[in-house]
């Protein structure tokens, strides 16, 4: 499929979702009965591509943004560095953006500063996880220490109170299963986060199957919208997630990994061949790049704005 600005995000946004702010649209997605997808974005280009492809919402992934910055997903990037990228993601897209807030980058005060800034740059949700700072990516190692429940509930409250816009969502993510805890422990934490006022719960698992997710969802009984990121259990059909009552499915890192694979291959091949002929067919034509970024539109605007005859004497 070729991506094109003639099928602009503006036009598609109108058909995919009605009017209102992005945060109101995300809230509506969470409150509607249907399952929906968040596509990962880690810079302006990946955001524009995912939006143009038709996804209704974006996930500004900590892992993918860190990787694109050339650092590890272990709180190495500062929160302002992450939000600088999120600003590019928001700017390049028209759909709601949920920001991976990690632990909130410290205590309740760092978390609420992060949340307030995320809202001000135009994000529509922040997702906070119940680990201690500095965190490590959920797929790496076994050192996933959980924050005390009361402390994390306070952090959620601080972030909820820091919002200006009621529609901005605060999503609570429990890493209980990642830390080796039981489904019962994950449920206990999730219920506490719901009591604290979270708008949705992200239950994360790194098992190869969705069994724990199914068990969690059955006991949860749709108390709040449930969000998952099926990275390790990606072969579970989406129909099964629908049957479990899952609301939001995050494709958390696929754009970054696609770029990683393609760039690795192209760099190796060009070096080996001492030329680009062999890889040329695998590359996006520049015309497609210019199309996506709306170069035609700029030419039109130049005619409209560059030299205006105001009729002044
Ligand atoms: C991310 O995309 O940064 C996430 C999801 O937090 S995961 O990498 O699965 O922890
Ligand atoms: Mg993350």
TrEMBL record:
Region feature Disordered, mapped onto this chain: 1-20
InterPro entries named among the record's database cross-references: ICL/PEPM (IPR039556), PEnolPyrv_PMutase_core (IPR012698), Pyrv/PenolPyrv_kinase-like_dom (IPR015813), Pyrv_kinase-like_dom_sf (IPR040442)
GO molecular function terms listed in the Swiss-Prot or TrEMBL record: hydrolase activity; phosphoenolpyruvate mutase activity
UniProt entry tagged with the keyword Hydrolase: yes
Record keywords, A-Z: Hydrolase, Isomerase
Top-level taxon of origin: Bacteria
Protein EC: 5.4.2.9
CDD domains the record matches: ICL_PEPM
Keyword Transport: no
UniProt-listed PANTHER family: PHOSPHOENOLPYRUVATE CARBOXYLASE (PTHR42905), PHOSPHOENOLPYRUVATE PHOSPHOMUTASE (PTHR42905:SF7)
Family stated for the protein in its record: Belongs to the isocitrate lyase/PEP mutase superfamily. PEP mutase family.
Name by which UniProt lists this protein: phosphoenolpyruvate mutase
Organism of provenance: Streptomyces sviceus (strain ATCC 29083 / DSM 924 / JCM 4929 / NBRC 13980 / NCIMB 11184 / NRRL 5439 / UC 5370)
